Amino acid sequence: MLQEESDLSLIIAQIVQKLKGSNLYSQLERQAWASLQRPEIKLESLKEDIKEFFKISGWEKKLQNAVYSELSVFPLPSHPAAPPEHLKEPLVYMRKAQGSWEKRILKSLNSMCTELSIPLARKRPVGEQKELLNKWNEMGTDEPDLSLFRPVYAPKDFLEVLINLRNPNYENGDSLSFRTHLGLIQVPLKVKDIPELKECFVELGLNIGQLGIDDSTQVPPELFENEHVRIGQKVLAEQDSAAAQQYIRQGSPTALRAELWALILNISSQPEDVLYYEQLKTNVIQHDLLVDSLIYKDVKLTASNDDYYFVFEDYLYQVLLCFSRDTSVLSHFAYNSASPPKSYIRGKLGLEEYAVFYPPNVAPLCFLYHEPSKLYQIFREMYVRFFFRLHSISSHPSGIVSLCLLFETLLQTYLPQLFYHLREIGAQPLRISFKWMVRAFSGYLATDQLLLLWDRILGYNSLEILAVLAAAVFAFRAVNLMEVTSLAAAEAVLADLSTLKVMPLLQIFLFATVT
Amino acid sequence: MSRILVPCHVKGTVALQVGDVRTSQGRPGVLVIDVTFPSVAPFELQEITFKNYYTAFLSIRVRQHTSAHTPAKWVTCLRDYCLMPDPHSEEGAQEYVSLFKHQMLCDMARVLELRLILRQPSPLWLSFTVEELQIYQQGPKSPSMTFPKWLSHPVPCEQPALLCEGLPDPSRVSSEVQQMWALTEMIRASHTSARIGRFDVDGCYDLNLLSYT
Questions:
Q1: Over the stretch A337-346, which tens digit does the pLDDT of each residue have?
Q2: What is the domain extent for residue B71?
Q3: Model pTM?
Q4: Of A15, A121, A387, B21, whose CB neighbour count within 10 A is largest?
Q5: Do B195 and A327 touch (CB under 8 A)?
Q6: ipTM, 2 decimals?
Q7: Contact state of B201 with A330 under an 8 Å Cβ cutoff
Q8: Is residue B107 part of a domain?
Q9: Which of B49, B124, B211 sits opposite A170 (nearest CB)?
Q10: CATH number, domain with residue B37
Q11: pLDDT at A155
């Protein structure tokens, strides 16, 4: 059909345009030139021979992985008449809400600047630069005075903004109708129900082996685990991103996880990448940003006090400080409903690397990657693909608004008594589960369980599993929750998730609950 | 294929409802928009583009010019085209849509008038319509240029005059120049969207305030 063909050629043109500026393109060109020396390349059939050479030497696979990665990340090209804001977020009222939320944060930052008389950014004097370079690997020992810094916002503030989100064209009347939202979220986004989720997450089914369930000590490894590890090694040998993504839906063996994630996110450690990281490190040393102090404070408050993550405190500083200066992340704003705040340098407009992210979830990644530049790349790629959706207001199915609505809808539909009871005692379930979802459960689950969960996020290329897990946790503790009589008591029941096993919960909720 | 915008006059929407609009409590679920082309002769329709605003289903009727003395009749050219897969939720509610000639049920050769029938069965939305409506007709197929006579009717080949010695062969020079020109065109065409990654201005990076705009 004409329409599909023209859509396809548009997508191809867009991907080619994107790949032309990348490392891979120049490498392929170099390889093609070098291959001309080889005896099997003949002038008459030059094109076919070079293509054959690429296939054999593995370069075609690399190109396939790059294309696959582009397809997963970038949204489809939109209608030619649609303005760029439409690509970021099609619904006008959501764009407006995101804009006012950003303004609020900027105001808060600006007022913090003026109150404390600290510049947003300044160049460090040479002595200070040397000092920072010496302490680069042990920034955790530094104890700067951070008492005056307040956090810019907490998850509760963000939740309030989401609760107040309203579509002006929607019937928000007081009278109860068949579509009254009993939960906190009042926008009518399309979310999946359990039959659709079952179809979507079919590899989590009861008759399919899973890591996290079928690798426990009672199950003999010959049944599933050994074979799964063997397949994983084969996938890594083939270096095929799409196969790795399919494979990881059943979980990744611990030994292979670091490489598998790097393969799926299409990250290869080229010398250029290490150089890029060193460049960012130099930027950190030369310039001091206000955001740095906020990052310090947040890491000190959260990760340093955590039993599992305190060892990685220094790594966290190294990664987060560089991340806040990385301009290549700006390209993801094309499909993120948020916009980077701008500022004026000497009267000229410059782009401040966005100071408005809620501290992202770096700590669990430190378990996998030890080399700073690789750790940094993985973290950046995961943020740009998934985690940014947890901090901005958009109608995307993996955006935080849809996740909240999905959670509430699942709970209402499949645990109506529990939902009604919690609502009656003033403990709206979303108030408890929001903080889990907005951090992708990092800091709440045990680390090995968290990594199994993030395996599935990568495998299914969506964050919906976070909402399903949140509902599954409520289902698991339903009996205790039915007996509480206040919000505080409900929070106490759900305070400690560190003993939970993620995969059995998900499986039971999706495939084994009698509805 | 090129296309030309056709200036059209969009009449106000008319709600179709049983009973009196003022006294009945429900909101109308059907709207009709008439589109006329007062200053243009009957044309061949190529494409219709618009921005949806909470319309669930769209039908289009067309009145075409007939050569004989029979009065032009209304014919349905698009029936119940779905714009929102779930009328109760936001999916597709504010999307940009294009409809092409080949999707229509009838021939769109000599269009006089169009009538868009919008339906939104869900009672949840306060209003619905389509915006930024634009109608396109087929553009000219190839650029209308007249070729100079010597290009379309080349004279037969003449014998090249004998050159002085020491000068290179003109046909070789011309093919090399052609290759170089092709190379420069290629480089000019393949611009990339990769960033260079500078972020300070004149070596300075002193920021004091973030701007709100």
A1: 666 555 554 4
A2: 3-17+31-138
A3: 0.81
A4: A121
A5: yes
A6: 0.76
A7: no
A8: yes
A9: B124
A10: 2.60.120.260
A11: 81
